[in-house]
Amino acid sequence: MILRRVMEHLRKQEWTAIGIDFVIVVIGVFVGIQLGNWNEARALRAQESVYLAQLRDEIVENDRMLEHLVTYTDRSVEGGRSALAWLESGEPCSTRCGELLIDFFHASQLWGTGFQTGKYAENERRGFPTDDDTRAAVRRFYIYLAGWNPINLTAPAYRERLRRHLSPEAAEVLWGDCFIVDAEIEFMSSDCAAELASVDTASVLRAIRADDQIADDLRFWIGQNIFAQQEYPRARESAANAVAAINADIGAP
Asked: Membrane spanning segments where (predicted)?
């Protein structure tokens, strides 16, 4: 219709009308392009919101893991301190043999589940988050995780050294009742001392004490876990900041 009108104005040499038609065409093309760009940006933003919501859920799950790790590490340090104090005391285990063996065992534990990073990698691949502040908050959290995964998956020397001294009977009780795995979550239980009554725990502890390297290895592992105790709250704070940034970005409550 516009083309027919322009041709008619050309035949009649109506230059003013031709100019008006030209402006109308230019404006129409511009508006069409802008609408196309707006629709594309809107679709991309909707896609980003979906991916960011998935990333937020992954961060929340990792933070839940960190919450369990705090309790797990606290118990490891507690058991390690108790075991080390007994080693250095030179006293017999007396009536505490079962409890002390549990302390040694719990101090040797290593969290076996790594953190989830799949959604973060997918968002990075797509260039999300596009907001600089949100991206910075998310990256700060995953930098923490990148540092902790190798630590969590590297067994300390103390772990192997201690377990060389466990009799099969002691290991059966310790793994059966003093350590519980529920899906990806690991729990250390101390409600298993009674089960060790049938085990010669005093002999096991004497063998442990006779190992002149085990105290040094235990000190090292306690120190590593004390460092973790100090860092986990910072990691959880970083997780909370990342979740808040994503929620603000996508307009979630």
From this structure: 15-35
Q: Confirm if 102 and 178 have CB atoms less than 8 A apart.
A: yes
Confidence class of residue 225 from pLDDT cuts 50, 70 and 90? very high
Residue 172 belongs to some domain of the structure: yes
Please report where in the chains the tokens 């859920």 appear, as a residue: 57
Q: Considering the chain, what is the average pLDDT of its residues?
A: 86
pLDDT of residue 46: 85
Q: For the chain, how many structural domains are there in total?
A: 1
Alpha carbons 154 and 158: distance in angstroms, whole number: 12
pTM: 0.79
- How does pLDDT run across 161-197, given as a tens digit for each residue? 999 999 999 999 999 888 887 767 778 888 888 889 9
Which residue stretches of the chain are H helix? 2-11, 15-89, 97-107, 118-126, 132-152, 157-164, 168-177, 201-210, 214-250
| 182 Rama class: left (phi>0) / alpha (psi -120 to 50) / beta | beta
Asked if omega into 150 is within 30° of 0 (cis), the reply is no
**Is 40 among the domain residues?**
no
**233 to 5, 91, 115, 138: CA distances (angstroms):** 72, 37, 16, 16
CA distance 177 to 195: 8
User: What integer pLDDT is reported at residue 115 of this predicted model?
Assistant: 87
